[in-house]
Design a protein that fits this description.
alpha/beta, Purple Acid Phosphatase, chain A, domain 2, 2 domains, six-stranded mixed beta sheet, 15 strands, 32% helix
Length: 421
Protein backbone atom coordinates (compact mmCIF):
# COMPACT_ATOMS: atom_id res chain seq x y z
CA UNK A 1 0.00 0.00 0.00
CA UNK A 2 1.19 3.52 -0.81
CA UNK A 3 -0.20 7.04 -1.20
CA UNK A 4 0.45 9.88 -3.60
CA UNK A 5 -0.84 13.44 -4.05
CA UNK A 6 -2.22 14.82 -7.29
CA UNK A 7 -2.35 18.63 -7.57
CA UNK A 8 -2.37 21.12 -10.43
CA UNK A 9 -2.67 24.77 -11.35
CA UNK A 10 -0.63 26.15 -8.47
CA UNK A 11 -0.02 29.51 -10.20
CA UNK A 12 2.66 30.54 -7.74
CA UNK A 13 2.75 34.31 -7.15
CA UNK A 14 -0.23 34.92 -9.39
CA UNK A 15 -0.79 38.69 -9.58
CA UNK A 16 -3.78 40.38 -8.03
CA UNK A 17 -6.47 41.03 -10.60
CA UNK A 18 -8.42 44.25 -10.24
CA UNK A 19 -8.27 44.37 -6.43
CA UNK A 20 -6.13 47.49 -6.25
CA UNK A 21 -9.18 49.61 -6.98
CA UNK A 22 -10.77 48.47 -3.70
CA UNK A 23 -9.37 50.37 -0.75
CA UNK A 24 -10.58 47.78 1.77
CA UNK A 25 -9.41 44.68 -0.11
CA UNK A 26 -7.13 42.29 1.87
CA UNK A 27 -4.53 42.59 -0.88
CA UNK A 28 -1.62 41.17 1.10
CA UNK A 29 -3.58 38.10 2.19
CA UNK A 30 -4.60 37.35 -1.39
CA UNK A 31 -1.13 38.08 -2.78
CA UNK A 32 0.45 35.46 -0.51
CA UNK A 33 -2.41 32.97 -0.63
CA UNK A 34 -0.96 30.80 -3.43
CA UNK A 35 2.33 30.42 -1.55
CA UNK A 36 0.62 29.53 1.72
CA UNK A 37 -1.62 27.01 -0.05
CA UNK A 38 1.48 25.41 -1.60
CA UNK A 39 3.06 25.22 1.84
CA UNK A 40 -0.08 23.40 2.98
CA UNK A 41 0.37 20.98 0.11
CA UNK A 42 3.93 20.22 1.21
CA UNK A 43 2.85 19.77 4.83
CA UNK A 44 0.09 17.38 3.77
CA UNK A 45 2.55 15.30 1.75
CA UNK A 46 4.89 15.03 4.74
CA UNK A 47 2.11 14.25 7.23
CA UNK A 48 0.61 11.55 5.01
CA UNK A 49 4.05 10.12 4.20
CA UNK A 50 3.22 9.97 0.51
CA UNK A 51 5.50 8.13 -1.86
CA UNK A 52 5.45 10.90 -4.49
CA UNK A 53 3.65 14.07 -5.60
CA UNK A 54 2.24 14.72 -9.09
CA UNK A 55 1.81 18.29 -10.36
CA UNK A 56 -0.22 18.41 -13.58
CA UNK A 57 0.92 21.75 -14.97
CA UNK A 58 0.79 25.51 -14.39
CA UNK A 59 3.06 25.47 -11.39
CA UNK A 60 3.87 29.07 -12.29
CA UNK A 61 1.73 31.91 -13.57
CA UNK A 62 3.84 32.94 -16.53
CA UNK A 63 7.19 34.66 -16.21
CA UNK A 64 8.40 35.59 -12.72
CA UNK A 65 8.80 39.19 -11.68
CA UNK A 66 12.04 38.19 -9.92
CA UNK A 67 13.84 35.08 -8.75
CA UNK A 68 12.05 34.94 -5.38
CA UNK A 69 9.41 32.65 -6.91
CA UNK A 70 12.08 30.10 -7.87
CA UNK A 71 13.78 30.39 -4.49
CA UNK A 72 10.48 29.78 -2.70
CA UNK A 73 9.82 26.70 -4.85
CA UNK A 74 13.30 25.34 -4.12
CA UNK A 75 12.71 25.78 -0.39
CA UNK A 76 9.45 23.84 -0.52
CA UNK A 77 10.91 21.10 -2.73
CA UNK A 78 13.78 20.90 -0.27
CA UNK A 79 11.33 20.19 2.56
CA UNK A 80 9.91 17.28 0.55
CA UNK A 81 13.40 16.11 -0.36
CA UNK A 82 14.31 15.83 3.31
CA UNK A 83 11.53 13.25 3.60
CA UNK A 84 12.56 11.44 0.39
CA UNK A 85 9.42 12.52 -1.47
CA UNK A 86 10.02 13.00 -5.21
CA UNK A 87 7.87 15.32 -7.32
CA UNK A 88 6.95 14.68 -10.95
CA UNK A 89 5.46 17.48 -13.00
CA UNK A 90 4.57 18.49 -16.52
CA UNK A 91 4.71 22.04 -17.81
CA UNK A 92 1.37 23.63 -18.67
CA UNK A 93 0.55 26.61 -20.85
CA UNK A 94 1.52 29.14 -18.16
CA UNK A 95 4.77 27.30 -17.39
CA UNK A 96 5.72 27.29 -21.07
CA UNK A 97 5.46 31.09 -21.06
CA UNK A 98 8.07 31.27 -18.27
CA UNK A 99 11.53 32.24 -19.49
CA UNK A 100 13.34 32.58 -16.16
CA UNK A 101 12.96 28.89 -15.25
CA UNK A 102 15.40 28.06 -18.02
CA UNK A 103 18.10 30.05 -16.22
CA UNK A 104 17.89 28.05 -12.98
CA UNK A 105 18.60 24.42 -12.19
CA UNK A 106 15.49 22.72 -10.83
CA UNK A 107 15.36 21.16 -7.35
CA UNK A 108 17.06 17.74 -7.20
CA UNK A 109 13.88 15.87 -6.21
CA UNK A 110 11.66 17.49 -8.88
CA UNK A 111 11.46 15.94 -12.35
CA UNK A 112 9.88 17.93 -15.20
CA UNK A 113 8.83 15.56 -17.97
CA UNK A 114 9.94 16.21 -21.53
CA UNK A 115 7.98 18.45 -23.93
CA UNK A 116 9.41 16.71 -27.01
CA UNK A 117 7.65 13.38 -26.55
CA UNK A 118 5.90 11.29 -23.92
CA UNK A 119 8.36 10.37 -21.19
CA UNK A 120 7.98 7.27 -19.02
CA UNK A 121 9.36 7.05 -15.48
CA UNK A 122 9.40 3.79 -13.55
CA UNK A 123 9.34 3.59 -9.77
CA UNK A 124 10.39 -0.03 -9.36
CA UNK A 125 10.07 -0.08 -5.58
CA UNK A 126 6.35 0.75 -5.93
CA UNK A 127 5.61 -1.09 -9.18
CA UNK A 128 4.51 2.25 -10.60
CA UNK A 129 5.05 3.74 -14.03
CA UNK A 130 4.30 7.40 -14.80
CA UNK A 131 3.72 8.55 -18.38
CA UNK A 132 3.63 12.27 -19.12
CA UNK A 133 4.44 15.06 -21.54
CA UNK A 134 4.97 18.77 -20.95
CA UNK A 135 3.88 21.71 -23.06
CA UNK A 136 6.73 23.00 -25.18
CA UNK A 137 4.96 26.22 -26.08
CA UNK A 138 2.22 28.30 -24.53
CA UNK A 139 -0.39 27.25 -27.09
CA UNK A 140 -0.64 23.51 -27.73
CA UNK A 141 -3.46 22.57 -30.07
CA UNK A 142 -2.38 19.02 -30.84
CA UNK A 143 -3.70 15.94 -29.08
CA UNK A 144 -0.83 14.99 -26.75
CA UNK A 145 -2.74 11.99 -25.38
CA UNK A 146 -2.48 10.28 -28.76
CA UNK A 147 1.23 9.71 -28.16
CA UNK A 148 0.86 8.04 -24.77
CA UNK A 149 1.76 4.33 -24.82
CA UNK A 150 -0.49 1.50 -23.74
CA UNK A 151 -0.32 0.51 -20.08
CA UNK A 152 2.52 -1.70 -18.93
CA UNK A 153 1.04 -4.92 -17.59
CA UNK A 154 1.52 -5.77 -13.94
CA UNK A 155 2.26 -2.16 -12.99
CA UNK A 156 0.20 0.76 -11.68
CA UNK A 157 0.09 3.13 -14.66
CA UNK A 158 -0.42 6.88 -14.25
CA UNK A 159 -0.98 9.39 -17.05
CA UNK A 160 0.16 12.95 -16.26
CA UNK A 161 -1.30 15.51 -18.66
CA UNK A 162 -2.27 19.18 -18.86
CA UNK A 163 -5.39 19.29 -21.04
CA UNK A 164 -8.84 20.77 -21.53
CA UNK A 165 -10.06 17.26 -22.38
CA UNK A 166 -13.13 17.62 -24.62
CA UNK A 167 -13.65 21.21 -23.47
CA UNK A 168 -14.58 22.87 -20.18
CA UNK A 169 -16.44 26.15 -19.69
CA UNK A 170 -14.17 29.09 -18.95
CA UNK A 171 -10.99 27.36 -20.10
CA UNK A 172 -9.14 27.69 -23.38
CA UNK A 173 -8.84 24.59 -25.57
CA UNK A 174 -5.40 23.08 -24.98
CA UNK A 175 -4.15 19.56 -25.87
CA UNK A 176 -7.72 18.35 -26.56
CA UNK A 177 -8.56 14.66 -26.26
CA UNK A 178 -11.53 12.43 -25.48
CA UNK A 179 -12.39 10.49 -22.34
CA UNK A 180 -12.66 7.27 -24.36
CA UNK A 181 -9.16 7.84 -25.68
CA UNK A 182 -7.77 8.06 -22.15
CA UNK A 183 -9.67 4.94 -21.13
CA UNK A 184 -8.28 3.02 -24.08
CA UNK A 185 -4.72 3.31 -22.74
CA UNK A 186 -5.51 0.97 -19.85
CA UNK A 187 -4.07 3.20 -17.10
CA UNK A 188 -5.35 3.01 -13.54
CA UNK A 189 -5.17 6.79 -12.94
CA UNK A 190 -5.09 9.91 -15.11
CA UNK A 191 -3.74 12.97 -13.32
CA UNK A 192 -5.00 15.97 -15.29
CA UNK A 193 -4.53 19.71 -14.95
CA UNK A 194 -5.70 22.98 -16.55
CA UNK A 195 -9.33 23.04 -15.37
CA UNK A 196 -9.48 24.99 -12.11
CA UNK A 197 -12.68 23.40 -10.79
CA UNK A 198 -12.28 20.00 -9.17
CA UNK A 199 -13.92 17.29 -11.25
CA UNK A 200 -13.95 13.51 -11.05
CA UNK A 201 -14.48 12.78 -14.74
CA UNK A 202 -14.41 9.01 -14.35
CA UNK A 203 -13.84 6.37 -11.69
CA UNK A 204 -13.14 3.46 -14.03
CA UNK A 205 -10.43 4.34 -14.62
CA UNK A 206 -9.91 7.35 -12.38
CA UNK A 207 -9.69 10.51 -14.50
CA UNK A 208 -9.36 13.53 -12.23
CA UNK A 209 -9.00 17.30 -12.38
CA UNK A 210 -7.98 18.24 -8.81
CA UNK A 211 -8.69 21.94 -9.47
CA UNK A 212 -6.45 24.80 -8.42
CA UNK A 213 -5.09 24.80 -4.87
CA UNK A 214 -6.16 28.38 -4.14
CA UNK A 215 -8.95 30.50 -5.58
CA UNK A 216 -7.54 33.77 -6.95
CA UNK A 217 -10.70 35.70 -7.85
CA UNK A 218 -14.49 35.57 -7.62
CA UNK A 219 -14.78 33.06 -10.46
CA UNK A 220 -12.94 30.51 -8.33
CA UNK A 221 -15.34 30.12 -5.42
CA UNK A 222 -15.57 27.38 -2.81
CA UNK A 223 -13.03 24.96 -1.38
CA UNK A 224 -9.82 24.47 -3.35
CA UNK A 225 -7.08 21.92 -2.95
CA UNK A 226 -5.75 18.57 -4.15
CA UNK A 227 -6.57 14.87 -4.02
CA UNK A 228 -4.85 12.20 -1.93
CA UNK A 229 -4.86 8.76 -3.54
CA UNK A 230 -4.33 5.44 -1.79
CA UNK A 231 -3.24 2.43 -3.85
CA UNK A 232 -3.52 -1.16 -2.65
CA UNK A 233 -2.75 -4.33 -4.63
CA UNK A 234 -2.21 -2.35 -7.83
CA UNK A 235 -5.57 -0.53 -7.73
CA UNK A 236 -6.93 2.74 -6.38
CA UNK A 237 -8.62 2.03 -3.04
CA UNK A 238 -9.38 5.59 -1.93
CA UNK A 239 -9.44 9.12 -3.36
CA UNK A 240 -9.72 11.86 -0.75
CA UNK A 241 -10.45 15.55 -1.37
CA UNK A 242 -8.08 17.76 0.65
CA UNK A 243 -8.63 21.50 1.07
CA UNK A 244 -5.46 23.59 0.93
CA UNK A 245 -6.78 27.11 0.39
CA UNK A 246 -6.12 29.80 2.98
CA UNK A 247 -8.60 32.37 1.70
CA UNK A 248 -11.97 31.45 0.24
CA UNK A 249 -14.05 33.20 -2.39
CA UNK A 250 -17.83 33.01 -2.10
CA UNK A 251 -20.83 34.23 -4.07
CA UNK A 252 -24.08 34.27 -2.11
CA UNK A 253 -27.64 35.58 -2.53
CA UNK A 254 -29.77 37.42 0.03
CA UNK A 255 -33.53 37.09 -0.48
CA UNK A 256 -35.24 40.41 0.26
CA UNK A 257 -38.76 39.27 -0.57
CA UNK A 258 -41.23 41.44 1.41
CA UNK A 259 -38.45 43.23 3.33
CA UNK A 260 -39.86 46.63 4.32
CA UNK A 261 -37.06 48.25 6.33
CA UNK A 262 -33.28 48.55 6.17
CA UNK A 263 -33.13 46.70 9.46
CA UNK A 264 -34.55 43.61 7.73
CA UNK A 265 -32.09 43.94 4.86
CA UNK A 266 -29.16 43.96 7.28
CA UNK A 267 -30.50 41.08 9.37
CA UNK A 268 -30.90 38.84 6.33
CA UNK A 269 -27.41 39.84 5.19
CA UNK A 270 -26.01 38.97 8.61
CA UNK A 271 -27.46 35.45 8.44
CA UNK A 272 -25.91 34.80 5.02
CA UNK A 273 -22.50 36.08 6.14
CA UNK A 274 -22.57 34.03 9.35
CA UNK A 275 -23.48 30.84 7.48
CA UNK A 276 -20.60 31.39 5.05
CA UNK A 277 -18.17 31.94 7.92
CA UNK A 278 -19.15 28.59 9.40
CA UNK A 279 -18.66 26.73 6.11
CA UNK A 280 -15.22 28.34 5.56
CA UNK A 281 -13.74 26.56 8.61
CA UNK A 282 -11.96 29.61 9.97
CA UNK A 283 -10.60 30.90 6.68
CA UNK A 284 -11.01 34.57 5.75
CA UNK A 285 -13.60 35.08 3.01
CA UNK A 286 -13.81 37.36 -0.01
CA UNK A 287 -17.54 37.52 -0.68
CA UNK A 288 -19.84 38.80 -3.41
CA UNK A 289 -23.41 39.37 -2.23
CA UNK A 290 -26.37 39.52 -4.59
CA UNK A 291 -29.70 40.89 -3.34
CA UNK A 292 -32.78 39.35 -4.92
CA UNK A 293 -36.53 39.15 -4.42
CA UNK A 294 -39.51 41.51 -4.68
CA UNK A 295 -39.48 44.24 -2.06
CA UNK A 296 -40.78 47.76 -1.60
CA UNK A 297 -37.18 48.65 -0.62
CA UNK A 298 -35.82 48.00 -4.11
CA UNK A 299 -36.13 51.56 -5.40
CA UNK A 300 -34.40 53.01 -2.35
CA UNK A 301 -31.56 50.50 -2.61
CA UNK A 302 -31.14 51.02 -6.36
CA UNK A 303 -31.17 54.82 -6.27
CA UNK A 304 -27.63 55.15 -4.87
CA UNK A 305 -25.84 51.84 -5.47
CA UNK A 306 -22.41 52.98 -4.30
CA UNK A 307 -23.84 54.22 -1.00
CA UNK A 308 -25.69 50.93 -0.51
CA UNK A 309 -22.57 48.90 -1.35
CA UNK A 310 -20.46 50.81 1.17
CA UNK A 311 -23.16 50.37 3.81
CA UNK A 312 -23.12 46.59 3.28
CA UNK A 313 -19.31 46.54 3.35
CA UNK A 314 -19.24 48.49 6.58
CA UNK A 315 -21.86 46.17 8.07
CA UNK A 316 -19.82 43.12 7.04
CA UNK A 317 -16.72 44.58 8.70
CA UNK A 318 -18.76 45.34 11.83
CA UNK A 319 -20.05 41.80 12.33
CA UNK A 320 -17.10 39.81 10.94
CA UNK A 321 -14.03 42.02 11.25
CA UNK A 322 -11.12 40.82 9.12
CA UNK A 323 -12.77 37.44 8.52
CA UNK A 324 -14.98 38.71 5.70
CA UNK A 325 -14.36 41.22 2.92
CA UNK A 326 -17.32 42.13 0.74
CA UNK A 327 -15.83 42.06 -2.76
CA UNK A 328 -18.94 43.37 -4.51
CA UNK A 329 -22.63 44.03 -3.94
CA UNK A 330 -25.09 43.29 -6.73
CA UNK A 331 -28.64 44.55 -6.39
CA UNK A 332 -31.13 42.53 -8.42
CA UNK A 333 -34.08 43.13 -6.10
CA UNK A 334 -37.34 43.82 -7.92
CA UNK A 335 -39.84 46.52 -7.05
CA UNK A 336 -43.40 45.80 -5.96
CA UNK A 337 -46.80 47.44 -5.76
CA UNK A 338 -45.84 51.13 -5.97
CA UNK A 339 -43.85 50.75 -9.18
CA UNK A 340 -46.49 48.44 -10.65
CA UNK A 341 -49.21 51.04 -10.13
CA UNK A 342 -47.10 53.77 -11.72
CA UNK A 343 -46.24 51.63 -14.72
CA UNK A 344 -49.87 50.79 -15.34
CA UNK A 345 -50.99 54.43 -15.23
CA UNK A 346 -51.29 56.94 -18.08
CA UNK A 347 -49.18 59.69 -16.51
CA UNK A 348 -46.12 61.13 -18.24
CA UNK A 349 -44.04 59.93 -15.30
CA UNK A 350 -45.31 56.38 -15.77
CA UNK A 351 -44.52 56.54 -19.49
CA UNK A 352 -40.96 57.70 -18.68
CA UNK A 353 -40.47 54.77 -16.31
CA UNK A 354 -41.82 52.34 -18.90
CA UNK A 355 -39.43 53.73 -21.53
CA UNK A 356 -36.46 53.32 -19.19
CA UNK A 357 -37.32 49.74 -18.27
CA UNK A 358 -38.03 48.89 -21.92
CA UNK A 359 -34.48 49.84 -22.92
CA UNK A 360 -32.99 46.68 -24.47
CA UNK A 361 -30.10 44.99 -22.67
CA UNK A 362 -28.48 44.12 -26.00
CA UNK A 363 -25.81 46.82 -26.57
CA UNK A 364 -26.24 46.50 -30.34
CA UNK A 365 -29.79 47.83 -29.98
CA UNK A 366 -28.83 51.00 -28.10
CA UNK A 367 -27.78 53.86 -30.35
CA UNK A 368 -24.42 55.35 -29.47
CA UNK A 369 -23.53 52.85 -26.72
CA UNK A 370 -20.58 51.40 -28.60
CA UNK A 371 -19.15 54.89 -29.01
CA UNK A 372 -19.48 55.48 -25.27
CA UNK A 373 -17.68 52.20 -24.51
CA UNK A 374 -14.90 53.07 -26.96
CA UNK A 375 -14.51 56.44 -25.24
CA UNK A 376 -14.30 54.73 -21.84
CA UNK A 377 -11.52 52.49 -23.07
CA UNK A 378 -9.49 55.58 -23.96
CA UNK A 379 -9.92 57.14 -20.52
CA UNK A 380 -9.60 54.14 -18.16
CA UNK A 381 -6.43 52.01 -17.67
CA UNK A 382 -6.56 48.75 -19.70
CA UNK A 383 -6.21 46.55 -16.59
CA UNK A 384 -9.64 47.75 -15.43
CA UNK A 385 -11.18 45.79 -18.30
CA UNK A 386 -9.32 42.52 -17.69
CA UNK A 387 -10.84 39.05 -18.01
CA UNK A 388 -11.55 38.81 -14.28
CA UNK A 389 -12.80 42.36 -13.88
CA UNK A 390 -16.42 43.28 -13.24
CA UNK A 391 -15.88 45.72 -16.13
CA UNK A 392 -14.81 43.13 -18.69
CA UNK A 393 -16.52 44.85 -21.62
CA UNK A 394 -15.48 42.07 -23.99
CA UNK A 395 -18.18 39.88 -22.44
CA UNK A 396 -21.74 40.50 -23.60
CA UNK A 397 -23.12 39.40 -20.25
CA UNK A 398 -21.05 42.06 -18.45
CA UNK A 399 -22.40 44.84 -20.68
CA UNK A 400 -25.94 43.50 -20.30
CA UNK A 401 -25.55 43.47 -16.52
CA UNK A 402 -24.29 47.06 -16.49
CA UNK A 403 -27.25 48.19 -18.62
CA UNK A 404 -29.70 46.45 -16.28
CA UNK A 405 -28.08 48.01 -13.21
CA UNK A 406 -28.16 51.44 -14.82
CA UNK A 407 -31.88 51.09 -15.55
CA UNK A 408 -32.68 50.14 -11.97
CA UNK A 409 -30.50 52.92 -10.59
CA UNK A 410 -32.25 55.53 -12.74
CA UNK A 411 -35.73 54.27 -11.85
CA UNK A 412 -34.76 54.16 -8.17
CA UNK A 413 -33.57 57.75 -8.18
CA UNK A 414 -36.66 58.98 -9.99
CA UNK A 415 -38.89 57.28 -7.42
CA UNK A 416 -36.94 58.56 -4.40
CA UNK A 417 -36.37 62.20 -5.44
CA UNK A 418 -39.20 64.40 -4.30
CA UNK A 419 -42.82 63.30 -4.20
CA UNK A 420 -42.76 61.23 -7.40
CA UNK A 421 -46.15 59.79 -6.77
Amino acid sequence: MFKFIHAADIHLDSPLRGLSRYESAPAESIRNACRKAFENLVELAIEEKVSFVLLAGDLYDGDWKDYSTGIFLSQQMGRLGQHNIPVFTVAGNHDAANRMTKALDGPANMTILSPRNVETIRLDNLAVVIHGRSFGTQHVDENLAAGFPAAEKGLFNVGLLHTSLDGREGHAIYAPCSIDELRSKGYQYWALGHVHKQEFVSEDPWIVFPGCIQGRHIRETGARGCVLITVEDGAVSAVEKCSLDVLRWAERSVDLTDAAEMREVLERTRIVIENERISADGRPIAMRIRFEGATSMSDKLAAYPERFEQQIRAFGAEIAGDDVWIERVENAAAGKLDLDSLLSGDSAFGKLLRDILATPNNPDEINGLKDVIADLRQKIPPEAFGADSILNLDEDQTVERLIEEAKHMLVGRLLTVGDAK
